[in-house]
Amino acid sequence: MNSMTFRKIKMVAAAVGLVTIAGACGEVAGVDDGFGEVQVTLQEATAEALFSVVAADFASAPEATAGRVDRGLVRSLEVTVDGIQILPYCEDAGEQNGDGQCEDLWETLDLGDETFDLDLLALPSEDADAVPLAAGVVPVGEYHKIRLFVTRAEVTFFEDINVGHSTFLAFDADENFDPDTFDNEIIHPVEISSAQNTGIKADIDLVVEAAAEGEDPAEVGLLFDADATFRNVIATGNGRVKMPPVLKVRPMHQDQNQNQNQIGG
Prior knowledge:
The protein has helices at 47-50, 226-229, 254-261, and strands spanning 31-44, 66-67, 74-88, 107-108, 116-119, 131-157, 161-163, 166-168, 188-191, 200-208, 218-224, 233-235, 241-242, 247-249. With 265 residues, the protein is mainly beta. It has one domain (14-261). A hairpin with a 5-residue loop joins strand 12 and strand 13. The longest helix is centred in the last third of the chain and has 8 residues, at 254-261. The chain is elongated, with a radius of gyration of 20 Å. Residues 1-28, 48-64, 94-100 and 253-265 have low confidence and may be disordered.
């Protein structure tokens, strides 16, 4: 697995190719002249943080095909991220916040590498520094949506898991079990609908201002909600698991308030 050490922001001057997107489709009310810096970070959510964040959409699965999985029984939930984008406010986006006529307005951020691997169960909690995921220079304005593109998702368990009428084994019974290395663990593919095509989306309330020397970039603080992710796990007919990672986002300026209460990271 690649290191999650933060790759420095790769500054891109406006003169070498950033395209002004105002007017590209209908009214793009969120975009203005100038450019600013933004970075995206990720942590595992705590109960305190989830009380006041904006939840990503999550469709509950039918009771007959779904089951709740205890987070403590899940050893790893690894994903390969190959793109992160943010969307400025666009009046034509409608309820889908980015579908249709505004789809060409997404701003792509720099991952540092073409892709990187991430274990969502090895993220720092909110009493530690967040993992920086991506950064970039984007047009000044309001951004209302973020999406992550995932090309691979896999889950492993500490013990066998029953979901409906399906059993997902933790280890290969034909091999000797080594509790220190987990060499005989069974890796189960995870299906995430549209993760590679339209991405895993979450609503944000981000204002990017013109970059000034010495100022920190605008930050999108993503929170991985393990409890919601494992609340409705679906067993598919082809032996796969459906447990789309649920991402939530800190509201604007929440970090400042949390620092006073010693909750935020």
